[in-house]
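Limitations
The structure tokens in this dataset are predictions for the assembled complex, not deposited experimental models. Users should treat interface geometry with appropriate caution, especially where small molecules or nucleic acid strands are included. An illustrative entry is reproduced here so readers can see what is and is not provided.
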Amino acid sequence: MKLRKNLQELISELKTNEDFKDNIAHWHTIDAKPASVVPYPETMDKRLQEALKKRKIDGLYTHQATAFEAATKGKSLVAVTPTASGKTLCYNLPVIQSILENDKTRALYIFPTKALSYDQKSELHEMITEMEVNINSYTYDGDTPSNIRQKIRKAGHIVITNPDMLHSGILPHHTKWVSLFENLKYVIIDELHIYRGVFGSHTANVIRRLKRICHFYGSDPVFICTSATIANPKELAEELTEKSMVLVNNNGAPSGKKHFVFYNPPIVNKPLNIRRSAILEARRLAMEFLRNKIQTIVFARSRVRVEILLTYLQELVSKQLGPKSIRGYRGGYLPKQRREIEKGLREGSIYGVVSTNALELGVDIGQLQVCIMTGYPGSIASAWQQAGRAGRRHGEALIIMVGSSSALDQYIVQNPEYFFGKNPETARINPDNLVILVDHVKCAAYELPFKAGETFGKAEIADVLEFLTEERVLHENNGKWFWMNDAFPAHNISLRSASQENVVIIDLTNEPDVKVIGEMDRYSAMTLLHDEAIYLHQGVQFQVEELDWEEKKAYVREVNVDYYTDANLAVQLSVLEIDKQRNSDSHEAAFGDVSVRAMATIFKKIKFDTHDNIGSGPITLPEEELHTASAMLSLNPVKLGWDENRIEQGMIGAAQALNGMVPLYVMCDPHDIHVYPQVKAAHNEKPTIFIYDRYPGGVGLSEKVYENADLILRETRQMIERCQCETGCPSCVGTDSASDSAKRDAVQLLKLFGSEII
Amino acid sequence: MSLKSKLGRMKSHISLPETENTVPKEKKTTKDNFSAIPFLEKWTENLTSVYRLDGSHCLIRETSYPLDYQHGSYRFNDLLGIVDSWNNSPLEHPLSSAGHQAGDLFFFDTETTGLGGGTGNTIFLLGYAFFENDRVVVRQHILPEPGNEIPLYQSFLEKVNYETLVTYNGKAFDWPQLKTRHTLIKEHVPKLPDFGHFDLYHGSRRLWKNKLDKVKLAAVEKDILGVQRENDIPGYLAPIIYFDFVERKDPEILFGIMKHNEIDVLSLITLYIHLSRQVLQLDGYNRESLEIARWLKLLGNAEAARQTYEAAIQEGTETEQLTALHGLALQWKKDKQYNKAKEAWELVAAGGNERQRVEAWHELAKMHEHHFRDYEAALFATETLYVILNGRISLYGLTPEDLEKRSARLQKKKAKNAALSADDR
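Predicted assembly:
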């Protein structure tokens, strides 16, 4: 039996082995960085100092000390901290200090996911136990047993929860939490950068409600946020909490040596510039490490890819390592499954994990040595967080990012300076999105009546109150607005998904023993859970037997087939109103409201391995209508001498490229926006590219696109020009456009749409 | 574009109640609270007066019944005898009104605008019945519209004795909700004191959960207390009716809900009489006696329980005899009368219902293992349980894993025993 190789050996093999070395587009080494430590602040409680000393912490990292000082002076702050930099002490120290000073003090910790709060609680708990003081910290979420809930409400110094629970389980019942709200000194918001887009816009309103209730009980908490590196942490924290923030970014934590490798799969079709599938390539790389029992985490961008990779790897490696040594991890799994996987990773009984970005957050899974990303994860902040999963606590680590054929991935792989330079990603939220705002005004009115002249955070809501009164949801009496409905409003409002109702997935395999195995938002369900779709869960294939759209239930049954399914969405769009506009001779840019009607039309069956199309079928689901915000880029008539078809083909190409590039500038998932070209837009009869938010009312993404249109158009044009293909490929203008001139035409159109002179 | 027209456009994305009447609400002119109460005549006709406080008001309705009025199976004045009986009984029980007079009790129920315990679930009616000067008085405090809570709670707190409330599920619902709504205006009204409470829901559930699908007050009234309701408006319509009233101000429609609440509080009197008679065993041995015995045992009153069980063995049907034996066996085990307990459980294991059989075999398995050290018999009991479970993942708290564990342990003990006795030889 051959000896196992260690990480060092594998790193040098990667550099020299013919199979791999030519595919390495960029090798970036980040040197180890020593710690920058200062003594404990004098004001810090001696018991706290003792506890830290016991844990072999002899001083504070510079950023921890800055955070401590700001917080204890009553200033809200946002600490920007990379993975494994001891960020939890940035908030745990001031919180424990204040409880030691006054036993009545309360703190509320908000983590974006349950998994995270579970983990942070054990860390906090260890520290408190070492100090031998009586500080109660409790997790309060959907899994908390009802018999201890009352105790937590009354006696929990530190209550750990998530925004969803705060929204539907705590705020609507604030009268049962009097001792918390009367004495709330600190609110902790961990992983701030996650609060963007729809989720961030909702959470900003949940925080408005929280602050309103605090005000009622006479408290005014200090907010401590921590964030991964993004371009605008202070701005985001201030928009989310509506408090002015101190920015703490003097990171003093040490870090080990890291190898960051950009890996571009080989081109398999030169004229079309098609590369080998990133999934297959990631599989090949992961195999190498797993075979040598090196703990490896593989990230994939979608649930489907996680399941595909998992199937591949389990098949290949299970004989050598045992079937349970490689596991999947993603949002749709039930809490118990997730706990089990987290535990296996920490204990080392699991060698490999294939994950969606659920694990990108700071869940403590111990020491992984290698991280492989299947494709660029969509944002630089995400990529660094995923990279942080490798080598959290020990020396050398290897991170491999395998580029896919998508435009965005190719841009990143070929422009490492963009990635390793200053992060340009701006996290956007729009707390005043009308749909979201109205939802939370309802919840807020349920919690406490509104008074005349009262604002909701910074939002003026007189019109909203009047609207809700007309709709008989509120009742006005003597200058106050009261909830007047038999519903519990928070139950119908989900903070995370665009649609208000999720589709429940029901497994019929063992009839009559049917069971719920997961859920999915409505919009995704249109293309992933339609009749006959192949749905993958824990590496097991299911076929959808029936999607009951009325009841929002998908009935699935286990199958064993060699293909997966991929669905098309048809879109119709009309302009309702233009809010902002700027014109020039060649083009005009506008921003306003549009109505979009989307319908899933057909699906294709795609064979594993070869990715051949082996069949298709219709999807019969009703149209979904969306009112949202859109940027509109239109072209004034010019003498191009092209026929309409050529313009259309060129625009399809340009749109495809834009769809890839926009997320670089507005920090969103490519699915959060849509780019839709129309040769003759109904509202101005001009060739127009629409870039719209996929959430009703918009969450600020398309507005940002409108503001930065010229920059985005220029960068997109350069990306296409730099692409090595001849007439267009999936990495630039896509293959939907049929004409040979599409690539050239897209470049020219992008110049015209922007302010560039030809 | 104005916010309002945007709101109109986004309407399809906003979840709103479905209203038949889409005519926009008329804008109210500023209202003087001292101005005439709308439909005052109708209110007055229905025995209701206006309670005014600092420019706001609520409504209070008061009606009364003679003491010999029959409501369901009892007359109200039966309560006087019941309170006497409690005062003369040595029994300690959560429903005991010993130390009180009939006039101390307030039979209390609320009507709200929604279900569940959220802050925005508004109480719009606080109703209670009590004994005063040879009459049973029903008093109802009514919220004319949301926002008039201060006079509502002020008048309520002035008039009610909250140390002796009698409710149906008030511990879990009415009182916490009252506390919640009180918290919102706590600066303007007296503090909410601690309260004493007789909650009739738990007792009713204990006695009738096998008999009634849902142990709701309406079901208890109909099937146990013999209360007939005529033209009753079901309680679940209360929110819609109240919203309609707030909009139109015509109280006609609300009178139905008020009548419903009135019967609720009166039925609480009948229910208290009936439950007390069962607990005190004033009607001798009957169908509820065994449940009462279990309840007494749970409360730690073993002697009272034993007496009831023995009565059941004398007078009950075969099923009741088995149930009584099962109860007695537990008692005997506690008193270390193991042989008596074993015999009783052997009977229950043979003839009881499924739950009793499972519990009896389980007890036998435990006794054989730990007390008699008869591992063979314990194994037999364990295997029998396995057969009863028949593949189910859990039955009355027992799982196949539990049984497997027990079985493995017994095998081991048995083997060890065999080895020991071999050594002896």
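Some entries come with short summary sentences. For this one: Chain B has two domains: 36-279, 290-424.
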